[in-house]
Every structure is written in C-alpha cells, then in structure tokens.
Write a structure and sequence with these properties.
Blueprint lengths: L4 H13 L3 E3 L2 E7 L5 E11 L4 E3 L2 H8 L6 E4 L5 E6 L2 E6 L20 E5 L1 H14 L3 E6 L5 E7 L9 E9 L5 E6 L10 E6 L3 E6 L2 E6 L5 E2 L2
Antiparallel strand pairs: 1-4, 2-3, 3-15, 5-6, 6-7, 8-11, 8-13, 9-10, 9-12, 10-11, 12-16, 13-14, 14-15
C-alpha cells in the first residue's frame, strides 16, 4: 500500500486534533480530540486492512513515512506492525493497543440544525489571523432570520473592552429568532478549504467539506432565542 498526498494531508490534520490514531479498516478514517469536543471523518482513496490497529504518536509515524520519497507500507500478517520501505531501506513500526488510545467509538447523531452558513477557506484564514493578532479566542456567530448575512466576531467575551474583528458570512438557512453561537478558535482544527456549516442550539456544529467533515462543540456561553 502507498499513501496518497491527499491522505497524508488528512492524517497531518488529524495529528493536530489528537496525537493518537486508531484505524478500523476500509477507506474511512476518523479521529477525536482528547477533550471529545472535536470529531473528524474522511473518506480516502486507500483501503486499509480489515483490522483495528493503533498509532500512539501519529506525528512520529508520519515523520517516519516522510523519511522516504515514495514508500510502500507492508502490514504484518498478525497486524502488530507495519514496515515502511523503499528500495533497500525500511522502518518497522509497531502498533499500539487501541484500547489505551482516544478514538471515536460511534458516529455523532447531529440534531436538526437551526442555522446554516458558508465558511470559506479565506474566512477561516482571516478568523485565525485576527484571533492571533488581537490575542483573543472567542468566535461569535450571530444573526437572525431578518439578516442577509451572519456576522462572525472575533473577540474576548470575558473582557468588555476587548478589541474585536468582524466579517460577514453567507447565509444558507436562518431561524426566526436571534442567536449567538460561540466557538473557541482553537477548535477550528480543520483543513483549509470551504465548508457548509450547520449549527444546532444543542451546542454542536457540523462542518461539511470537500475532503473531511468535522463535528465541533460550541461554548456554553452560546445563546439561542430568549
């Protein structure tokens, strides 16, 4: 088996969410943050062996793969390790017990969302840059059914005099009532692409992208209606 550049990009993104990784066979790969506030899933080109195996340090494993220009992965028959090889050089990398690793055991059942909007790659980059520049961490998405656009405000809700940055987001579906959905910008550990975002007042959001999809928990300071 050889891993495509697209799959390696997804795995590098997953490593930013959780250093652990559990593979469960097939072409769907998932990960979940230690705090269980981010879950990601992607369908990739490769078919992984029909077995469950764990990687304790995903960054280390990816670095081992990147020691080679065009490596092949050969899985041991007993699935206790994988050999990464090219030509006369190889690395034997042992798997970890999946039971000691943090991984999603089941899919999230997304509640019916009240709000949907577009979040482009440029929007994401701008929000992250604003949060870094202003040293703040809250992203507040607000609006109502009367608005042609929603507002994304990057600020610090704990500081009434916080500097803030705002930008407009394209509306897909809006409720009749006002809302303020709060995210921690640190939880936007997603690939830099365009997303359709669905948000539920149950404090969960779903980001549907071209390569991977993410469920991200909202902050408890979020409000919906009265």
């Amino acid at each position: 088996m050889k891993l495509s550049n697209e799959t390696l990009t997804v795995l590098k993104n997953y490593a930013s969410i959780n250093s652990n990784m559990v593979f469960r066979g097939g072409n769907t790969i998932k990960t979940m943050a230690e705090a269980k506030n981010i879950l990601a899933t992607a369908t990739v080109k490769e078919e992984f062996p029909d077995a469950t195996f764990g990687i304790y340090d995903l960054n280390e494993f990816l670095n081992a793969i990147e020691m080679f220009d065009d490596p092949e992965l050969v899985f041991a028959d007993d699935m206790n390790s994988v050999t990464v090889k090219q030509g006369s050089q190889s690395i034997r990398y042992f798997f970890s017990d999946p039971q000691i690793l943090t991984s999603p055991s089941k899919d999230i059942q997304m509640p019916t969302p009240e709000v949907k909007f577009e979040l482009t790659a440029d929007d994401l980059a701008t929000i992250r840059r604003a949060a870094s520049t202003l040293s703040v961490s809250d992203v507040v998405i607000s609006g109502s059914g009367n608005d042609e656009t929603f507002t994304a405000e990057v600020t610090d809700l704990a500081d009434a005099t916080s500097n803030s940055f705002s930008l407009d987001l394209a509306v897909i579906e809006a409720p009749d009532t006002e809302f303020k959905f709060v995210f921690n910008v640190a939880n936007f550990k997603v690939l830099p692409t365009d997303y359709q975002v669905s948000v539920s007042s149950k404090l969960i959001s779903y980001l549907e992208g071209k390569t991977a999809n993410y469920w991200i928990a909202l902050e408890k300071t979020s409000t919906y209606g009265n």
